[in-house]
Amino acid sequence: MSATLELAALQGDIKALGSIGYGLAAIGPGIGVGIVFGKGTEALARQPEAAGLIRANQILGFAFCEALALIGIVMPFVYGS
To answer: What are the annotated GO cellular component locations (predicted)?
Structure first.
Protein backbone atom coordinates (compact mmCIF):
# COMPACT_ATOMS: atom_id res chain seq x y z
CA MET A 1 0.00 0.00 0.00
CA SER A 2 2.79 2.45 0.80
CA ALA A 3 4.39 1.78 -2.60
CA THR A 4 1.17 2.97 -4.25
CA LEU A 5 1.18 6.16 -2.18
CA GLU A 6 4.83 6.78 -3.02
CA LEU A 7 4.09 6.32 -6.71
CA ALA A 8 1.16 8.75 -6.51
CA ALA A 9 3.35 11.33 -4.76
CA LEU A 10 6.05 10.89 -7.39
CA GLN A 11 3.54 11.41 -10.21
CA GLY A 12 2.34 14.60 -8.51
CA ASP A 13 5.93 15.84 -8.31
CA ILE A 14 6.46 15.12 -12.00
CA LYS A 15 3.34 17.11 -12.92
CA ALA A 16 4.56 19.99 -10.76
CA LEU A 17 7.89 19.87 -12.57
CA GLY A 18 5.99 20.06 -15.86
CA SER A 19 4.39 23.31 -14.72
CA ILE A 20 7.79 24.72 -13.76
CA GLY A 21 9.17 23.59 -17.11
CA TYR A 22 6.40 25.39 -18.98
CA GLY A 23 7.04 28.52 -16.95
CA LEU A 24 10.68 28.42 -17.97
CA ALA A 25 9.77 27.65 -21.58
CA ALA A 26 7.48 30.70 -21.72
CA ILE A 27 10.57 32.89 -21.43
CA GLY A 28 11.49 32.07 -25.05
CA PRO A 29 8.33 33.43 -26.70
CA GLY A 30 8.51 36.47 -24.40
CA ILE A 31 12.00 37.24 -25.62
CA GLY A 32 10.89 36.58 -29.20
CA VAL A 33 8.02 39.06 -28.95
CA GLY A 34 10.38 41.67 -27.52
CA ILE A 35 12.84 41.18 -30.37
CA VAL A 36 10.08 41.29 -33.02
CA PHE A 37 8.67 44.58 -31.79
CA GLY A 38 12.06 46.11 -31.02
CA LYS A 39 13.38 45.43 -34.49
CA GLY A 40 10.08 46.50 -36.04
CA THR A 41 10.31 49.84 -34.25
CA GLU A 42 13.87 50.27 -35.49
CA ALA A 43 12.75 49.49 -39.03
CA LEU A 44 9.88 52.00 -38.80
CA ALA A 45 12.30 54.67 -37.62
CA ARG A 46 14.64 53.99 -40.55
CA GLN A 47 12.01 53.64 -43.29
CA PRO A 48 8.70 55.21 -42.36
CA GLU A 49 7.43 54.81 -45.92
CA ALA A 50 7.38 51.02 -45.49
CA ALA A 51 5.17 51.16 -42.40
CA GLY A 52 2.42 48.93 -43.81
CA LEU A 53 4.75 46.10 -44.76
CA ILE A 54 6.76 46.34 -41.55
CA ARG A 55 3.64 46.35 -39.40
CA ALA A 56 2.27 43.30 -41.22
CA ASN A 57 5.52 41.44 -40.64
CA GLN A 58 5.49 42.47 -36.97
CA ILE A 59 2.03 41.05 -36.48
CA LEU A 60 2.99 37.83 -38.27
CA GLY A 61 6.11 37.44 -36.13
CA PHE A 62 4.10 38.11 -32.98
CA ALA A 63 1.56 35.44 -33.99
CA PHE A 64 4.29 32.85 -34.54
CA CYS A 65 5.92 33.61 -31.18
CA GLU A 66 2.61 33.38 -29.36
CA ALA A 67 1.74 30.15 -31.17
CA LEU A 68 4.80 28.58 -29.56
CA ALA A 69 3.56 29.63 -26.14
CA LEU A 70 0.08 28.26 -26.82
CA ILE A 71 1.51 24.95 -28.01
CA GLY A 72 3.47 24.83 -24.76
CA ILE A 73 0.26 25.26 -22.77
CA VAL A 74 -1.53 22.46 -24.65
CA MET A 75 1.24 19.84 -24.69
CA PRO A 76 1.05 18.92 -20.96
CA PHE A 77 -2.64 18.14 -21.45
CA VAL A 78 -1.96 16.04 -24.53
CA TYR A 79 0.94 14.04 -23.07
CA GLY A 80 0.11 14.30 -19.36
CA SER A 81 -2.27 11.37 -19.18
So the answer is: plasma membrane; proton-transporting ATP synthase complex; proton-transporting two-sector ATPase complex, proton-transporting domain
36: CB partners within 8 A, 6+ apart: 58, 61, 62, 65
Question: Rounded to whole angstroms, how far apart are CA atoms 32 and 35?
Answer: 5
pLDDT digits (tens, 9 = 90+) for 10-41: 566 666 666 677 777 778 888 888 888 999 99
**Cβ 36 vs Cβ 61: under 8 Å:** yes
Q: Which domains does the chain have, with CATH numbers?
A: 1-80 (1.20.20.10)
Global pTM value: 0.62
Q: Are 65 and 29 in contact (CB under 8 A)?
A: yes
Contacts 24+ apart (CB under 8 A), 13-19: 15/76, 15/80, 18/76, 18/80, 19/76
